[in-house]
Prior knowledge:
Blueprint: E1 6-12, H1 15-28, E2 30-37, H2 41-59, E3 65-70, H3 78-90, E4 104-107, H4 113-121, H5 138-144, H6 147-151
Parallel strand pairs: 1-2, 1-3, 3-4
Amino acid sequence: MSRAEIRAVVLYExxxxxxxxxxxxxxxxxxxxxxxxxxxxxxxxxxFVVELRAMRPRMSYQQGLALVVIVDxxxxxxxTRIQDLNDKVRHSESGGPRSAAERIIYLVPALEIExxxxxxxxxxARPVDESKDYKPEPSWRRLAKDLGAAxx
Length: 152
């Protein structure tokens, strides 16, 4: 028996997130219905509410829908950023809090997604300190030259 297809709308901040999202959805067997580059974390949070409001009525009769949100924690903690996402939903007109039956995925790197790339692609840099900015590091600069290959 084959697995039902899952179509996903993916919201993300920047190119590094986008390349990661494309590879991850492929690896998980999701079919991206739409990939939306939103800009910074604030734009992702705002767009999340808009997309959820549009998607919720369809989720009741289209079982194969998912919403993937990729947003860096930045100066906050991952717990705080996830709480920000949940608060956005709770305090908006999107239909109330997130339910367990909804396919909503939060991917929240502790500081920035560049740390995930360094961890996954540069074994010599492990363990990665998720509170450290790896953008100035040689390991990240090498990966940034070809994000598509790094994401693979």
